[in-house]
Amino acid sequence: MTTTETGEQLKQLVKEKYGQIAEQSKESNEASCCGATSGCATVDYTVMADDYSNLKGYVADADLGLGCGIPTEFAQIKEGDTVIDLGSGAGNDAFVARSIVGLTGKVIGIDFTEKMIVKAKINAQRLNYTNVEFRQGDIENMPVAEKIADVVVSNCVLNLVPNKKQAFAETFRVLKAGGHFSVSDIVLVGDLPEGLQESAEMYAGCVSGAIQKDNYLLIIREAGFSNISIQKEKQIILPDEIVKDYLSLEAMEEFKKGTTGIFSITVYAEKPYSCCGPTGCSQ
User: Fold this and answer.
1) 65's torsion region: left (phi>0), alpha (psi -120 to 50) or beta?
2) Largest CA distance in the chain
3) Is 49 within 8 Å of 65 (Cβ atoms)?
4) What is the pLDDT of residue 172?
5) Residue 20 belongs to domain with CATH number
6) At what angle do helices 3-22 and 114-127 cross, to 10 degrees?
């Protein structure tokens, strides 16, 4: 099997799983394994998600409880900005961003799953939001022109993308010179058992698409970004019943100590005003 075939299969798996999740409530998603209603024991997914409910612009119907951070809290969005939300789901982060950019700004949400796009558009229409747009598309080949975004945000999505180098190259392409991104994502620290990383159920939900933290930051640097910093970091303490089939008791204790395991990070980086990115110089 080629890398391309594997990537396409994983994309299809994500599309199918998140198509199911789009039809569930936030409560159903939080009460199941990373949004999955089958294939794993019932656990509390709120170990991943952060609470949006007190944020300006929060729309409860758009919150499916699938994030692992609040990137809009750190993204330095300004009034009048154009913001792109990668993996916009039902519109949660897009609507929070809209409350900041105001009527003079614009928010474009991109999601791979058609059912998520439908749900997000229904939410936007119901709220009469005319400056929020949702487009179905692949983050590795975004359906937007180059150099149109002031800010890119994403919440627990890029770890699901098979070709992260291409995803960050595309992020570089769509940002204006001087623009920046703030993304929350799942990364690994230390070696995890092969079975855990290759588990399709865990991949579709939250974990096994993740890569090592150092490699993640290297990909961002190699894409041409500068001023890279981690704005927030927290360890994800997964319930024992999720990982007991993959980790020994000793290894599970190491997870809890933080010396190895799964972490949520919110990363900030800028596209320089004059720079040479992966496709050449950009002014």
Assistant:
1) left
2) 55
3) yes
4) 98
5) 3.40.50.150
6) 40
Q: Which domain covers residue 37, as residue numbers? A: 3-269
Looking at every residue in the chain, the average pLDDT score rounds to 80
Strand ranges in 54-105 using DSSP code E only, listed in sequence order: 82-86
Q: Which residue has the higher pLDDT, 6 or 130?
A: 130
DSSP, collapsed to helix, strand or coil, labels residue 102 as coil
Q: Token pair of 60, please?
A: 């409860």
Burial 244-268 (b: 16+ CB within 10 A, else e): eebbeeebeeebeeeeebbbbbbbb
Count of structural domains within the chain: 1
Question: For residue 160, what are its two tokens?
Answer: 């699901």
Tokens of 255: 């997870």
What sign does the CA torsion over 265, 208, 170, 224 have?
positive
> Would 54 be classed as within a structural domain?
yes
**Mean pLDDT on 83-107:** 96
Question: What are the pLDDT digits (tens) for 103-116?
Answer: 999 999 999 889 99
Token pair belonging to 237: 């303490």
Q: Is the pLDDT of residue 222 over 90?
A: yes
Cα separation, 136 vs 178, whole angstroms: 27
Q: Specify if 275 maps to a domain.
A: no
First to last CA, the chain: 40
Cβ–Cβ under 8 Å, residues 232 and 193 = no
Structure-token pair, residue 234: 């927290």
Q: What is the pTM of this model?
A: 0.82
Structure tokens at 111: 């999601």
